[in-house]
Structure formats: C-alpha cells, structure tokens
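Q: Could you fold this chain for me?
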Amino acid sequence: MPALIELTDFSKTYNSGEVQVHAVKNVSIKIEPGEFVAIMGASGSGKSTMMNTLGCLDRPTGGKFHFDGVDVMGLNRDELADLRNKKIGFVFQGFNLLARSTALENIELPMLYMRPSIPGSEQVERATKALGKVGLAERGDHRPSQLSGGQQQRVAIARALVNEPRLLLADEPTGNLDTQTSIEIMGVFQELNRAGMTIVMVTHELDIARFCKRNVVMRDGRIVNDNPVVDPFDATTQLQKLRAEQAAVNLAP
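A: Sure. Below is the predicted structure, expressed as structure tokens.
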C-alpha cells in the first residue's frame, strides 16, 4: 500500500519585506495509512507550516508533495478545496463551533460544500452516525453553550469525520482542556485510530504525544527526531491512574 502522505525535500519560504524566512528546509517524510503521529516542536520550529501543508492549506515553495497518490503541486485552487473537503478532517484547539447551531447542525456543515450535493436526509443520518462515534449520540440537539469543553471537542471531531476523510489533522486538540478531559479526548482519537483512521496531531505537550504511535520532533525548520513511541499511553489505563490519584488526595487527612 502506498504512503498516504509523502513529502520529498519539502521547503517553505516566506517573504517578510526584504527578508526571507525559511520556515521548513528540505524535509522528507512519509506517513502510512493507519498511523497516529504527533508533530512536536517549539514556536518557530516549522510544525505549524508542516500542518498547513499536510492539510493542503498552503503549498510548498520547493520539493514534492503527494497525498493519497495525487501530486498536490499540480492542483489548482478548486481541486485543492475538493481534496480538503473530501479527504481531510480538521480539529482545532478552539472547537470553532457555531454558537446558535445544534451539535448535529454543526456536524452537517462540511457536507454543505460537497459536490455533488448530499440529500438532507442523508446529511442527518451521517451526522448522527459521526456523533455516535464520539460518544454523544444523545446530544445532537444541544447547542455549544449546553456542552462542556470536552463535549464541544467531541462535536468538532465528529464534524471532521462526517465526510469520511482519509486523514484527520488535529492542531493542539487538548490545549483548552483539563487533564482528565484531555485524556478522554485522546481516548477518542485512539479508538478512531484502532478503527483505521490516520491521524496527525500537532502538540507541544509531551504527555499528550505519548498517546500517539510515532513522534516527529522539529527544530528550526527541520526534523531532528522521528521515532515510534515505545509503550504508548493507553487512555483507559491513564484515566484509571488519574482517578486513583484524585481519590487518594481526597482521602488524605
């Protein structure tokens, strides 16, 4: 099976006035179907540029980029938009839900841009199915203000899944969440990955990266470390440990 993502000698340079900023420098990486990868690095390391490129939101200024066998460099703007909508799901730190829309209505949004169009009854069916995948089947009529932060992120994940993408991109998905909720969200990602979903996540949190199967570390626009995670954290086990620690604290005199 060919790689889902293949970047070869990928470079990205931005022009800031008379100064050229080399955000990424000659990076080559392959991501196979079914992987769960964390991209890590300090501010300015190039990880956000990498994420924008993998999501087809930005083009390399040098090198080659193939996504699911397609030469991305040869696509026009409309073709890139179609690829993003059909094959890539996005999850962000800030949820980005419409406040006046229900969970189901928020999840249906990506389907409005599908070509050919999807019948309304099928949109509801697919949105309901996606909501069930993240454990919120009974919350479809709730608005964001009626949901906790963790529930809102689950809705955002369901929205990213509704078009059945080949790749799920998550940008600091636990950045606004407490420890327990963060572990629960990583549990959702692990369940999706076990079902075959390819996930690439940007995070600066070492503990969160331990839930992934592979960690890619960037520094100054280059990959400086790319290794499988030895003995990844399991969300269920980590939740049990956290609850035991909390109970011990509560029982302490």
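A (continued): Residues 37-45+77-248 form a domain with the Rossmann fold fold (CATH 3.40.50.300).
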